[in-house]
Amino acid sequence: MADKPAIVLVHGFWGGAAHWANVILELDKRGYDKIHAVENPLTSLADDAERTRKMVKQVDGPVVLVGHSYGGAVITEAGDLPNVTALVYIAAFAPDAGESPGQISQENPPAAFENIAPDSDGYLWVKPDKFHDSFAQDVSREDALVMAVTQKAPLGSTFGDNVTAPAWRAKPTYYQVSTEDRMIHPDNERRMAQRMNPRKIIELDASHASLASRPTEVCDLIELAARETAG
Q: How far apart are CA 72 and CA 77, in angstroms?
């Protein structure tokens, strides 16, 4: 692709834009020079979707919008902009209209659900001593420690925010399932992926943090979306 589209990366709960570090480096090696990573406040789905829309609107040209974890709900809500050519979900929530991430999780709780705890201000945290085992068991202890210490906690109420008009009903979609995910049940990922009728589903033997542990395969999927929809 002589003129590659922009890639806009949207993080989820308990992480910030820097969680995409390995994906950013891999995309750069592949010649993508228009890479953006949204830093969402994680205060409500409406706030996060608006922040993401603002970044996408700054891009002149086609955008492949990529969401990890709760970031999938964000791109579902914000991905209807005309220059968005594809939605890529990385071990992510993909709610339908009237659904929330919390509702989906309650229907099939993930293995690490008990390792999430609220603080006195209403923010939800992954217990630091459980972060490696819960979120990123396939990265090094050192990398998981940094993730745990720098985790970005969402307001608990954000879990209950419903999607209004899911962009995946109108845009080409791609989905990566993490088969060893302990933060979103892998069967929930499969169900959400299949009902979107995506152009491609891949399964990786990976934790929830597949963007950190399997950046090559994640970028293969992003590149497929870019090639098929924005070429």
A: 9
Considering the domain boundaries, does residue 143 fall inside one? Answer: yes
Non-local (6+) Cβ contacts of 93 within 8 A are 12, 69, 70, 72, 73, 76, 101, 104, 184, 192
Q: In terms of residue numbers, what domain contains 143? A: 6-229
CATH number at residue 55: 3.40.50.1820
**222: which DSSP letter?**
H
Question: What percent of the chain is helix, strand and coil (3-state, nearest 5)?
Answer: 40, 20, 40
Positive or negative, the Cα torsion across 16, 9, 81, 183?
negative
Q: What residue has token string 């720098």? A: 150
Half-sphere exposure of 179 (CA within 13 A, CB side): 5
Q: Is the pTM here over 0.85, yes or no? A: yes
Would residue 1 count as lying in a domain? Answer: no
Q: Render pLDDT for 140-199 as a digit per residue (tens, 0 to 9).
A: 999 999 999 999 999 999 999 999 999 999 999 999 999 999 999 999 999 999 999 999
The answer as to whether 97 is a domain residue is yes
CB 57 within 8 A of CB 81: yes
Q: What CA–CA distance (Å, rounded) separates 36 from 17? A: 9
Describe the strand order of the beta sheet including 84-90 as a list of residue ranges.
35-38, 6-10, 63-68, 84-90, 173-178, 200-204
